[in-house]
């Protein structure tokens, strides 16, 4: 018996329509569980955090790391370039000043996370555009076989004579750029430029990054190196004869540089972005980062019994930290000056 052509057409139409609906629903479901993350934090530490978020929420995260020495600045510039067609949903920066610059460039959107209530106002944007967490401190790493690891001993070297056995990272990027911005906000432009010229006239050794500055001290080539607490712990954990003391401004304030997280304006997955921000700002994540090899400092309230002793000591230093608001205001000016200084452009 020959099938009615009209009946065949109807059946095929229904089948195609059903297939289209299934495909559309599957696509919509897939897109619901997606998030694009740009992450300047070290992949070694961040990957475990991201994997736990995926496990707890079912949301699949596509993450872009940048492993270059200027990774924070590189991702910040990429977000600026993508401003009119954003691909990223959330930016996990390993510091704060670049994130504030993105707010000033109208690249972020506000989100007041209830989880952020546990973090002091000092470490978050009053309008909700970004929140800081899990800080690092700027420190002097000291080769204890050459010099006592005390603030007095370090200050004496820095104030007098040759600096040929002192290392500092090139300040065009990373936390050294942030350090310079803090100094400009505290000292003013002319004093910072004078200090920069003087330490180079006295022979300071300039390294490619904080890790190299750390290596120069750990290997005994230098006595003192400007670096961050995470790099300092890398040398300590490797059994090198080193100690660290906090960098202090002349008003006694320390320099604490938090991680920060922000949602990109006009992003594609805003609901999932908010879920990730909530997760990242949790006490659970700060405790996890405090117990990692980086020993990052919780900035919000956590159970102190869950923290290693060395992080408890860092919390005392971080309690004296300077506000970064004024440093953010001059960050671009510092970068423009240093770029001209080093490249002639």
Outline the biggest β-sheet: 10 strands, mixed
Strand content: 15-25%
Give the helix/strand class: alpha/beta
- CATH domain topology of the largest domain: D-Maltodextrin-Binding Protein, domain 2
> How confident overall, as mean pLDDT?
89
Q: What share of residues is helical?
A: 40-55%
CATH superfamily of the largest domain: Periplasmic binding protein-like II
Low-confidence stretches: 1-33
Radius of gyration from the alpha-carbon trace, in angstroms? 24 Å
CATH architecture name of the largest domain? 3-Layer(aba) Sandwich
Please write the string of helix (H) and strand (E) elements. Answer: HEHEHEHEEHEHHEHEHEEHHHH
Instruction: Give the number of helices.
Output: 13
The level 1 CATH classification of the largest domain is: Alpha Beta
Number of strands: 10
Question: Cα distance, first to last residue?
Answer: 84 Å
Spatial shape = globular
Number of domains: 2
